[in-house]
Amino acid sequence: MNTSSTPTQQFWLGVREELPILLGVVPFGMIYGILALDAGLSPLDAQAMSSVIFAGSAQFMTARLVGAVTPGMIVILTGFVINLRHALYSASIAPYTKHLPLKWKAVLAYLLTDEAYAVSIVHYQREGDLTHKHWHLLGSGLTLWSSWQLSTAVGIFLGAQIPASWELDFFLPLTFIALVVPGLRDTAGFITAAVASLCALIFFGLPLKLGLILSAFIGIAAGLWSDKK
């Protein structure tokens, strides 16, 4: 690759490298749109969540908690815990973007999601001048953002056509299982998932959905402990 490529070339390279990932993102966005309506959100609220939060797993859980009339602070805290991984993404990207002005950092921070990070960090780690590489992240991030908004809208449209008598709750755990299982590639990951799952069953009856947060922290602690052994 030409290390002195222009911003336009970097941008379209980011777009092209993000496109294959959309095969998994689009169905996920459609399922979110359907389940958001099933949880009681209005079409406008469901779409706005995709624009403002822009984080699939957090949106699924937020919709579920809102549908269960969970107190606002618990919803916010749960979303915060789920999205803690984004802090790690930011720390990883920061050395490559420290030369950028604040407005660029703000835009890239908003677009820094799992799938955009996955392709852009590889690109950043390649040898070459960093001058225009942030355009690659902009391209991959905007590609993901656009597809997420459109797939959410399609899901909302489909969800509006589904009779209220149809129970769609079972799609939520199935979706998360499909997301988690492929990512379990080491002992620490397996232990984290197993411990968190077991604790979720044990603490299921806790009020205000606190069992979810407690299980997440215990699972993370177990994974970190196993990783240090």
Task: Describe it.
By secondary structure, this protein is mainly alpha-helical. Helix content is 74%, strand content 0%. It is built from twelve helices and no strands. The chain has helices at residues 7-18, 22-38, 43-52, 56-67, 72-82, 85-97, 102-111, 114-125, 134-161, 171-180, 187-202, 210-228.
Give the terminus-to-terminus CA distance: 41 Å
Tell me, rounded to a whole number, the average pLDDT.
Answer: 84
Tell me the strand percentage band: under 5%
Q: Helix tally? A: 12
Largest beta-sheet characterization: none
Number of domains: 2
Features:
229 residues, 2 domains
In short:
With 229 residues, the chain is mostly helical. It has helices spanning 7-18, 22-38, 43-52, 56-67, 72-82, 85-97, 102-111, 114-125, 134-161, 171-180, 187-202, 210-228.
What layout of secondary structure does this protein have?
Layout: H1 7-18, H2 22-38, H3 43-52, H4 56-67, H5 72-82, H6 85-97, H7 102-111, H8 114-125, H9 134-161, H10 171-180, H11 187-202, H12 210-228
